[in-house]
Every structure is written in C-alpha cells, then in structure tokens.
Amino acid sequence: MAKESTKLNSEYLYNRDDFQITPKMKQSFDKYGYILVRGLLDNEEVEKVKKVFENATSEQILEDNKMRVSDGQGREAKLIVWSHPGNDVSGMVSRSQKVAGTCEKLMGEEVYHYHGKLVSKEAFTGGSHLWHQDYGYWYKNGCLLPNMMTVFIALDKCTKGNGCLQILESSHTCGRLDHELMHGQQAIPDIKRVEQIKERCPLVWCEMNPGDALFFHSNMMHTSGQNSSPNRRWALLTAFNTKSNNPTKQHHHPCYTPLTKVPDAAIKECENYTLDLSQMGFVHPSQSQTSRPSLTKEQEEATTRS
C-alpha cells in the first residue's frame, strides 16, 4: 500500500547569517529530488513580493496575460508566465544568491532563468494540477537533458485544504515518463504507472508557510489538489536551466541567457514594485507550445486575428 506523509526527509531551516549548501544538503537533493528550505524569505520580503503582484498596474498586466488551466473537473488554476527576471522585487528574488546561487550549487554548474511564474489558486474555485514532471514539458522544447529545476516559493500559506504540492520522494530517479495533453495540461497519462511508483516513492504533502521554498528536480513527479478553502494560494515559481543544456531549438522559453545575480540584500533594498513589460517578456496564452490553457473570449479573438 502506498505511503503518505507530511514529514519531509529533506527539510532545512534558512539561517540568514550562515546559509550555504553543504555536502549533506547536496546529497539529500540528489537522493530525494528536492530540498525544502523553511523561511528562505522572511515576512518583510514576502510582503514586498506580494506588493509587486497586488498593485493596480500589475493586476492589469496579469489579467492580460493570464492562463486559465482547466483540471477537467470544472475548476481552473491560473498561471502568469514570463521569460526574464525584471528589476522589480520579484526579479531580485529570482536573481538572488539564495535562490539562483543555491540552484547552481545543487546542479553543479551555471544556471540561467528559464522562466518565472505566478501560480494562483483562488479561494473555493482553484483547480488542481495533474501528476506531471516539469521535464515532461521541457523535453519537448529541445532540452536534451533533465539538468533543470524549479524553485517554488509560497506567498500564501499552503495546506492540504487549499491545494498544496504533493511530491513523490526520489521519483526523479525513475527518469522521464511520457506526457500527453489532458484537460489542457501536459500530464502523465499512465496513472497505473504513477501508482506503482508510489509503492516505492512515498507521497509527501508539502505544507508550507509564506516564505518557505521548495527546490526540486525537473524529473520529480508532483501534483496538487483543488482549493476548496476560503484561503487564496499564491506561489512564485522560478525555473532554471543549466548552461550546458541550452535548448536545441527556439521556443517560447529563453535559450541560454547569462543571469546577473544579485546579493540577497537586494531584495529588501529594492523599491521597484512595477512589473517591467519590456524586460520580462510575458508569455501570452496563445504562445504556449507545451499546453493549451483555457483562453478568455478576448484572448481567443486575438489569437484568431493573429
């Protein structure tokens, strides 16, 4: 029988004065496919990031570029995707040593910003994400190796009730599984295979507080449930690719672009709360090549005209 738990085997506490990736943490990432760092962003940093996405100017930008992804059960998750980190507070987070620098140490080489995302599951209506691997998407973009990863930073409290992440520990060692389009999401179609993997790779619920960060390998299998609670669930995600894994073709995410990293202190020093349309390169729903999210009527008309 498959095991389920809320206890993570690869969990660490962020210490602002002495945080570094130790050999033990690297070994843990290689074994389990992730590390969870509690308190990577403190309360002030979280509030600064939320201020970027909650102001009136940003709300319009987000609305214009929102992808609504159906879960096949009458609900939707919402995504906003961009190509490059801007000079606002959220960009400082993605470019910081404790985010990008940590990824370089975990991957063992230079990384670049593959794309960023704001993922939202609104109260009572937020949809689920089906079982998948990020590399299941990215493989189709000409990335030949799974030497890629994602950093999931909770901006709101993530619980079982509002659709927190669920992961299969060590499932990244199973390699890439085939993915097909299901309800507008690239997902693993062979659920029997997933159930078999659960027998050996425990399912863990990643309940997180605002500021907690999950660094995970691109082949780790994960899913998340619907949000049936009265509490919103927002998360900032940054995907990184390694320089040596530069895609073999042009697609809707960037090829290798050198990343200018910043000190961690830049997050609190930054007072720019305006998303930069020219710098970030938002990905319109009609441009996505790896999924077909639900479009608004206006977006469908724009796609038809183009």
From TrEMBL:
What SUPFAM superfamilies does its record include?
A: Clavaminate synthase-like (SSF51197)
- InterPro entries, alphabetically? Phytyl_CoA_dOase-like
Tell me the cofactors it needs: Fe cation
Show the ranges annotated as biased composition (Polar residues): 285-294
Q: Which Pfam families match?
A: PhyH (PF05721)
Q: Where is the composition biased (Basic and acidic residues)?
A: 295-306
Q: Where are the stretches annotated Disordered?
A: 284-306
Q: Which Gene3D superfamilies did the record assign?
A: q2cbj1_9rhob like domain
> What superkingdom heads the lineage?
Eukaryota
Q: What is this protein called?
A: Ectoine hydroxylase
